[in-house]
Backbone:
């Protein structure tokens, strides 16, 4: 098979798997909370893949990725809820073919605009300083949304506030983004990230990460490459946020606290654990973080654990969860400072 | 026709004049040396040419007819000036071949969009670039190491790889910053032959900053001497070796002390 037809085939596979998931996912996975978990994991993969463009490939350090996710989520929620109100009907797959691209696409677009805004300082700032700018952006966004009170009953509805946004008349955000959209977006993101990495563009980005002065000396314009990488990553995060706000079995309400520092930090953990710069590494990292967090939550809810807890009231299991989590991270960082995979992809042979 | 022309170029760092009113003309396809004692401003001149520093107002730098004075490093590289660095700067976690390939990003036909859509043009372009890069590696005797990480090469091979990477830009002018650093007599002789061959093979103009007099006197057609950021002499190697100012700068610390 030629390389070209392989490319077409990979899109076809994404389309078929997406369609199969759209109509089969509900049948195969009966439990709605499990469905929600799997979809959340997929969205976390999107978040990790997009952050990997900045933190892995370009070697910048952003700790405010949840800000871009939040911009995407709120934008998509507003667009989706208003569109649904203006054009009433069932939350069905055919209608989602219009609703999802409009709302999630809008979220990606606005997030990309913020990507330019946050990407520009990255030209002058390095390392910790850039990290503070990105963190500042994410926190400003979250606090503005949490404290703002805009337009009661207008198009924006009750957008601001700690309680979150649930559409123009608090009826909840319609959940159009089914498995087709969520898994399809992950498939597409995997293909695009892989192509990005294994192209001249990705190579230049990695060169920039290794030595900016030398890269500029061979014609790689740091401005262009860094800002573009921020825009691509922000757009990807915007898609993830948009899907998060509008997905099947998800919460019908978008809240500012979904996009706090903890969320940004989780995204970094996913990328670093899996291996900065590795597409498959970021994917595995995202799956690991999502499922391990859920696993600890599940453990806590089991009857035997509940019993144990009431018998030992001094034991704060929530804190213990974070201790185990941190210990795992420290262990990985000591044993494999570059993450589990490093920059390698899982199918690539180890370089000697 | 001159390849590179500097006209009254100065650079002041917070009151300290690192380079003052330096002017020189480098003829096309020549080998030109810039020498001077430590701290004379040689590398600063390279950094001014390549856009790392911006010259003080009044000076100008021309590549043929292109004004480089206000261009960024990436734009200078795209215009046709390649360079190597005093302390080798390779892309550590990239392979030898990838190091060379990075240098064709400005000249290649296809951009980000075709990389994402993987059009036929993308594959053709990439194949052509790999072929060109492999030819360059062959020329520098590095083709068997193409897939190794660049850091695994020996010191001499790293220097050669840096020159190969610079040549991938298809430059009109290549600036070599102390290419003979750390070389013994035999290696320096080899470098002389390589520099001459570089000019014959690629028709490139070579500018050399170098301390190793064996190399400078042996290979340069004209030499420009700097001391404390100022021009003190220019001429052929024979003229420079006899120039009293140059002798004073290199050997005459006593005279300077007596004067001060």
Residues:
């Amino acid at each position: 098979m030629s390389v070209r037809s392989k490319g077409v085939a990979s899109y076809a596979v994404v389309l078929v798997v997406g369609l199969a998931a759209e109509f089969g996912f509900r049948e195969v996975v009966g439990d709605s909370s499990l469905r929600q978990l799997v979809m959340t994991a997929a969205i976390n993969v999107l978040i990790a893949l997009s952050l990997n463009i900045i933190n892995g490939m370009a070697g910048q350090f952003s700790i405010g990725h949840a800000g871009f996710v939040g911009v995407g989520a709120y934008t998509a929620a507003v667009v989706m809820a208003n569109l649904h109100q203006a054009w009433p009907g069932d939350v069905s797959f055919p209608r989602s073919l219009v609703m999802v691209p409009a709302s999630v696409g809008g979220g990606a677009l606005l997030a990309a605009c913020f990507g330019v805004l946050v990407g520009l300082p990255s030209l002058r700032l390095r390392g910790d300083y850039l990290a503070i700018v990105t963190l500042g952006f994410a926190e400003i966004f979250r606090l503005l949304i949490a404290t703002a009170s805009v337009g009661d009953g207008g198009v924006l509805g009750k957008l601001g506030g700690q309680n979150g946004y649930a559409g123009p008349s608090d009826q909840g955000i319609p959940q159009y983004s089914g498995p087709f959209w969520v898994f399809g977006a992950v498939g597409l993101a995997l293909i695009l990230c892989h192509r990005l990495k294994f192209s001249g563009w990705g190579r230049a980005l990695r060169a920039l990460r290794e030595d900016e002065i030398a890269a500029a000396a061979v014609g790689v314009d740091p401005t262009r490459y860094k800002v573009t990488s921020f825009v691509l990553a922000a757009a990807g995060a915007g898609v993830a946020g948009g899907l998060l706000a509008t997905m099947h079995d998800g919460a019908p309400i978008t809240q500012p606290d979904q996009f706090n520092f903890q969320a940004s930090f989780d995204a970094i953990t996913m990328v670093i654990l899996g291996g900065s710069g590795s597409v498959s590494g970021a994917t595995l990292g995202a799956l690991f973080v999502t499922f391990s967090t859920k696993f600890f939550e599940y453990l806590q809810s089991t009857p035997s654990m509940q019993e144990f807890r009431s018998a030992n009231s001094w034991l704060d299991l929530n804190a213990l969860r974070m201790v185990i989590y941190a210990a795992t991270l420290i262990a990985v960082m000591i044993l494999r400072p570059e993450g589990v995979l490093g920059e390698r992809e899982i199918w690539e042979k180890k370089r000697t | 026709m001159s390849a590179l022309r500097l006209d009254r170029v100065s650079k002041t760092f917070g009151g300290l004049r690192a380079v003052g009113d330096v002017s020189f003309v480098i003829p096309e396809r020549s080998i030109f040396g810039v020498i001077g004692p430590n701290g004379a401003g040689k590398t600063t001149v390279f950094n001014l040419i390549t856009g790392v520093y911006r010259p003080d107002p009044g000076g100008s730098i021309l590549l043929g007819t292109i004004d480089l004075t206000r261009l960024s490093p990436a734009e200078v590289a795209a215009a046709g000036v390649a360079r190597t660095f005093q302390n080798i700067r390779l892309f550590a976690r990239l392979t030898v071949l990838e190091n060379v390939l990075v240098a064709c990003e400005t000249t290649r036909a296809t951009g980000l969009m075709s990389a994402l859509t993987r059009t036929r043009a993308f594959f053709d372009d990439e194949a052509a670039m790999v072929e060109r890069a492999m030819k360059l590696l062959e020329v520098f005797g590095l083709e068997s190491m193409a897939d190794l990480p660049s850091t695994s090469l020996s010191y001499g091979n790293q220097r050669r790889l840096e020159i190969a990477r610079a040549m991938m830009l298809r430059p009109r002018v290549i600036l070599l910053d102390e290419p003979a650093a750390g070389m013994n007599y035999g290696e320096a002789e080899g470098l002389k032959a390589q520099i001459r061959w570089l000019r014959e093979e690629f028709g490139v103009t070579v500018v050399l900053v170098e301390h190793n007099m064996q190399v400078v006197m042996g290979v340069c057609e004209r030499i420009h001497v700097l001391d404390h950021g100022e021009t003190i002499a220019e001429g052929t190697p024979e003229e420079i070796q006899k120039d009293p100012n140059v002798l004073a700068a290199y050997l005459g610390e006593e005279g300077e002390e007596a004067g001060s």
